[in-house]
Automatic annotation (TrEMBL):
One Pfam family, short name: BPD_transp_1
Cross-referenced PROSITE patterns: ABC_TM1
Membrane topology recorded in Swiss-Prot or TrEMBL: Multi-pass membrane protein
Span of domain ABC transmembrane type-1: 87-276
Keyword Transmembrane helix part of the UniProt annotation: yes
Protein name per UniProt: ABC transporter permease
Any single biological process term in GO: transmembrane transport
Keywords: Cell membrane, Membrane, Transmembrane, Transmembrane helix, Transport
Compartments it resides in: Cell membrane
GO cellular component, one term: plasma membrane
Chain segments annotated as transmembrane: 23-42, 89-114, 135-159, 179-197, 209-233, 253-272
SUPFAM superfamilies: MetI-like
Length: 290
């Protein structure tokens, strides 16, 4: 008999959750494929201009220009072609930034977990500083001082979120260090490099893959924000954020210039985030069996 004091645990609606995850993963795979094969898919080059076809609406509207299925921008450039190329560049920058963050955060977290003492305290102090300061403001400051070329942009994106990798790796290393096989390796005289490569790193693959996926969507948003503000990818090179920023003046008369890249940003971040949640559920035994 259930009393008021008994907790009521609502059953998990696994069917609907799995359906949403499958849809999101399908969208993510489709967007990745479109970005990879963009040069062979797009009907026009991303920089091709035709002033006679400027501000033409998408397919289904009057004044539609043949071949420009998503319309054209203020210079007659094909919005669909620029959006796919922009998504290709945005994903490339996001992957590069996430990989740099993984290398920096993973290395520092590994050192903090194995060395302990003042080394661990110093690294975790840097982690706390990174968390405490809004990184968007830091990125704006760095790009304002050093310029907004692609090299600086990739480095800025790379140091965004490294602290999450460091915290995850440090926590996992400390958990693994208490296990018998790690203590046996230390007793046998194994060095920290051998223990890290042979015993620790193989057990960190799952959480790092999950964090890499989640960081990818966050970096996409950060890059889009910086490009929207004019401090990211510079014209005429297209990226999703810069396309939204340049097209906002034409929202009343040609909203498709903004809506197409904005929709890709939303779909990309949503699908990658859901895919990261799915990977987390699959990697965590406690969540997998629920």
């Amino acid at each position: 008999m259930t009393t008021l004091a008994d907790p009521v645990i609502a059953p998990r609606r696994k069917g609907s959750t799995d359906f949403i995850q499958k849809i999101a993963i399908g969208i993510a795979i489709l967007l990745f494929a479109l970005a990879v094969f963009a040069p062979w898919i797009v009907p026009f080059g991303p920089l091709d201009q035709s002033l006679l076809s400027r501000l033409r609406p998408p397919l289904g509207f009057e004044r539609f220009a043949a071949g420009h299925y998503a319309g054209t921008d203020e210079l007659g450039r094909d919005v669909l072609s620029r959006s796919l190329y922009g998504m290709r560049l945005t994903l490339t920058l996001a992957f590069a930034g996430a990989l740099i963050g993984l290398l920096i955060g993973g290395t520092l977290g590994l050192v903090a977990g194995l060395r302990r003492g003042w080394v661990e305290d110093g690294i975790m102090a840097l982690v706390d500083m990174q968390i405490a300061i809004p990184f968007t403001l830091v990125a704006l400051l760095i790009l304002s001082l050093l310029g907004s070329n692609l090299t600086v942009l990739v480095l800025v994106l790379g140091i965004a979120g490294w602290e999450q990798y460091a915290r995850i790796v440090r926590a996992e290393v400390r958990r693994l260090s208490a296990l018998p096989f790690i203590e046996a390796a230390w007793t046998a005289g194994a060095g920290p490099v051998y223990i890290a490569c042979r015993h620790v790193l193989p057990n960190l693959v799952s959480p790092l893959v999950v964090q890499f996926t989640l960081a990818l969507s966050n970096i996409v948003i950060l890059e889009s924000t910086l490009s929207f503000l004019g401090l990211g990818v510079q014209p005429p090179q297209p990226s999703l954020g810069s396309m939204v920023g340049l097209g906002r003046d034409y929202m009343p008369t040609a909203p498709w210039i903004v809506l197409v890249p904005a929709a890709l940003i939303v779909a990309l971040t949503f699908s990658v985030q859901i895919m990261g949640d799915w990977l987390r559920d699959r990697a965590d035994v406690r969540l997998r069996d629920r």
